[in-house]
Design goal:
With 330 residues, the chain is an alpha/beta fold. The chain has 2 domains: 122 residues, 3-Layer(aba) Sandwich (Aminopeptidase), CATH 3.40.630; 202 residues, HUPs (Rossmann fold, 3-Layer(aba) Sandwich). 36% of the residues lie in helices and 21% in strands. It contains 10 helices and 14 strands. Strands 1-2-3-4-5-7-6 form a 7-stranded mixed β-sheet. It has a 5-stranded parallel β-sheet with strand order 10-9-8-11-12, sandwiched between helices. Helix 5 links the parallel strand 8 and strand 9. Helix 4 crosses helix 7 and helix 6 packs antiparallel against helix 10. The longest helix is centred in the C-terminal third of the chain and has 21 residues. The mean pLDDT is 91.
Length: 330
């Protein structure tokens, strides 16, 4: 048995891997950074696994070679590569029917829907993460807001002030994924400073959870057009089961979304999915400035044009954000 690694594979080797995965009803996902591939004596691909960041994906083993430990071999290669890259908290998205395979490889179930199972390589990882978050108030109406804040605007502040006025306590979760213009630590600090006047608010990072940090793959989905819906349902399942339930959150607040059809569909899905799980969804009208909704996209365009001292930003950003942006620029 010959084991190969590619970062990633290209050319004919990649074509062979794609053909092999297709024979198993799987796809080779875009964005793969590293692949481990096992080939038999004739050079035929018999097992493969890949990695994109901390997400293990595109795992497949030939039906004729099941039970030979090949899944463990290729996944172990990928896990070792991830650890060498400084990534120790790993995730797998797969079909629910594949749970036993990854159970045996040291992964633990985190959230499951009819279409997808999300597993991590830390036993009770999400449970321990949520238990570490501040929960100074546990009774009454407990609300939540999940935001990116790239950057934190007066619109975000209005949403949080309004939500906090309707709750005994409000948890604000700031996405931790490093996929934004501003780094996660800066966005978190923007929100903390911008809500410091709200005494019934706690601001938290999402860590590696709420999908933000785990790039959702669709290699195992036959109907790719459903990928967005499947991701949405999994994200809401994680929020409801892993965050809302143990933190006694019974209301989730969102801003109305007149600018992004994708976010609007997500809000609609939220309103259908969360109430049966005990979480009421409240939409708050978007805050406006100059006759238009305040949006982070609009702010980023102005920042690109004139930096933090662009005059128009004063109507869109709190002084706390402007001060941090000036510090960040230096």
């Amino acid at each position: 048995m010959d084991m190969m690694q590619g970062r990633p594979f290209k050319g004919r080797t990649l074509e062979r891997i794609e053909k092999f995965l297709a024979s198993l009803g799987l796809d080779y996902d875009d964005g793969v950074e590293m692949t481990a591939c096992a080939c038999d004596e004739e050079g035929e691909v018999v097992a493969t696994a890949s990695r994109q960041g901390a997400v293990i994906k595109c795992v497949g083993v030939s039906a004729a070679r099941q039970g030979e430990g090949l899944a463990a071999s290729v996944v172990s290669e990928v896990v070792t590569d991830a650890i060498q890259a400084g990534l120790t908290h790993l995730f797998v998205f797969t079909k629910p029917s594949n749970r036993q395979i990854f159970d045996d490889l040291g992964f633990f179930p985190m959230a499951e829907t009819a279409d997808v199972l999300l597993m991590e390589n830390r036993r009770d990882g999400v449970k321990r993460f949520v238990a570490s978050l501040e929960r100074s108030v546990r009774d009454g109406v407990i609300g939540a807001v999940v935001v990116n804040c790239n950057p934190f605007t007066k619109g975000h502040r209005y949403l949080m002030e309004t939500a906090a006025s309707q709750c005994d306590f409000l948890h604000v979760f700031v996405l931790s994924a490093e996929k934004s213009l501003f780094p996660a630590a800066l966005r978190l600090e923007m929100v903390r400073r911008g809500t410091a006047h709200l005494k019934n608010v706690a601001v938290h990072p999402t860590g590696d959870y709420l999908i933000s940090a785990a790039t959702f793959p669709d290699y195992f989905l036959k109907d790719k057009a459903r990928a967005g819906d499947v991701k949405c349902e999994l994200d809401l399942t994680i929020f409801a089961r892993c965050f809302a339930e143990p933190m006694n959150i019974t209301r989730r607040f969102v801003g109305t979304e007149p600018l992004s059809p994708v976010t609007e569909r997500y809000n609609e899905a939220m309103k259908a999915f969360l109430p049966p799980l005990g979480v009421e969804v409240t939409e708050i009208p978007r805050c406006e400035a100059g006759g238009a909704p305040i949006s982070a996209t609009r702010v980023r365009a102005l920042l690109e044009r004139g930096g933090p001292d662009e005059p128009e930003l004063a109507a869109l950003l709190p002084e706390t954000t402007l001060a941090l942006l000036r510090e960040y620029r230096r």
